[in-house]
Design brief:
- By secondary structure, the chain is α+β, with helices and mostly antiparallel strands.
- The protein has a six-stranded antiparallel barrel.
- Helix 2 links the parallel strand 2 and strand 3.
- The radius of gyration is 22 Å and the shape is globular.
- The chain starts with 10 loop residues before the first strand and ends with a strand.
Length: about 350
């Protein structure tokens, strides 16, 4: 850990996305006296997908110029396609619903970018994530951001001790409204720029259309929980557990129907009412602890989607037991464990 008493000697590479959050992060670090360099990461180049990389890079460069800091651009297009997007397609083909942002943080922002920064002599990387890192008795802990409506700790659960020790999150103790206020005061041209949504580094895309570039439509049966055929659909890989639209049923069933299961082998989509989609427990794979291994059992709260509700649960040897039945548990998504505001780890829902 570098000596923090003279921040002007501490080099920080700030990931500038072109958005307001990373711009304010760079500003706050510069104000604190750090030696700050802005870095734009290019990870996608297909404009047809709604990618706004050109505009975002221009916005990032403009922010750096406004702050009077150096600006660099890195090309991770090949690595992003290989390490994030290939996995995205593979998971959908297998009938699961992956979370590309989780993998993107592990492989790109705190993988390729951090490795580059360390090699270039930087002490830290920083991003505009709404999360916090603290050091507690020699262990680095990931805490939720104080803005509950923006907290991004869910996407960061795969980070390890080494990565957290070299990471700064300047927005962890700030609320979004304040970030926009600061941007206005500083005079950033992107103070009112809309938040990015959709797939990490690509943007807002129609997931089905994006998947159709690689996965063909294949007509299949929609069945109820008794196996009765009640409609059809375009291929199970285009649907996620809990989804309410996009499939067709032959008759009106009163209450809304939701996807409650998928059979990739037979291309059958199972639908039912909300109560049919509730789960009291589920298994997780690839469990990762951010700090020390917490063993085979843990009382915690769990999130099964970004900004989703925190459910009371107990984790036991790969099994998550929920205190109350919960709707929309989707295989492939991440289940992230919390103890209070401390993000302790997580796994992938089976």
């Amino acid at each position: 850990i570098p000596d923090m008493s003279n921040k002007s000697k501490i080099k920080v590479a700030v990931g500038l996305s072109g958005g307001v959050d990373s711009a304010v992060s760079a500003y706050l670090l510069k104000e604190e006296g750090y030696d700050v360099v802005g870095v734009y990461m290019q990870c996608w180049d297909a404009k047809a997908d709604g990618c706004t990389a050109e505009e975002d890079r221009a916005d990032a460069a403009k922010v750096a110029a406004h702050l009077g800091i150096k600006f660099k651009s890195l090309d991770f297009v090949k690595e992003y396609k290989e390490n994030v997007i290939e996995h995205f397609y593979d998971e959908y083909k297998a009938g699961r619903t992956p979370n590309p942002d989780v993998l993107c943080n592990k492989e790109i922002k705190f993988g390729m970018f951090l490795d580059w920064a360390v090699a270039e002599g930087f002490n830290y990387v920083a991003t505009g994530h709404y999360a916090r890192v603290i050091e507690d008795v020699g262990e680095f802990k990931l805490l939720r951001g104080i803005d509950d409506s923006k907290d991004q700790s869910y996407f960061l659960y795969l980070l390890n001790q080494d990565q957290l020790s070299k990471t700064l999150f300047p927005l962890g103790l700030i609320k979004k409204e304040k970030v926009r206020e600061i941007a206005e005061e500083v005079g950033f041209h992107n103070a009112d720029k809309a938040d990015s949504v959709g797939i990490c580094f690509i943007g807002e895309v129609d997931i089905k259309e994006f998947l159709k570039k690689r996965i063909d439509e294949k007509l299949g049966d929609v069945v109820n929980k008794d196996g009765e055929v009640i409609g059809d659909h375009d291929g199970v890989w285009f649907y996620t557990i809990g989804q309410r639209h996009g499939f067709r049923t032959s008759k009106y069933h009163g209450m809304p129907l939701y996807v409650t299961g998928k059979d990739v082998g037979t291309n059958q989509l199972i639908v039912g009412y909300a109560k049919d989609g509730e789960r009291e427990n589920f298994e997780v794979d690839d469990v990762h602890w951010i700090g020390k291994d917490l063993g085979d059992s843990l009382d915690c709260t769990v999130r099964i989607r970004h900004l989703g509700e925190l459910y009371e649960a107990r984790y036991e040897e790969g099994l998550v037991k929920l205190k109350y039945p919960t709707f929309g548990v989707a295989p492939g998504q991440s289940a992230v464990f919390y103890v209070g505001e401390h993000t302790v780890g997580g796994g992938v829902i089976k």
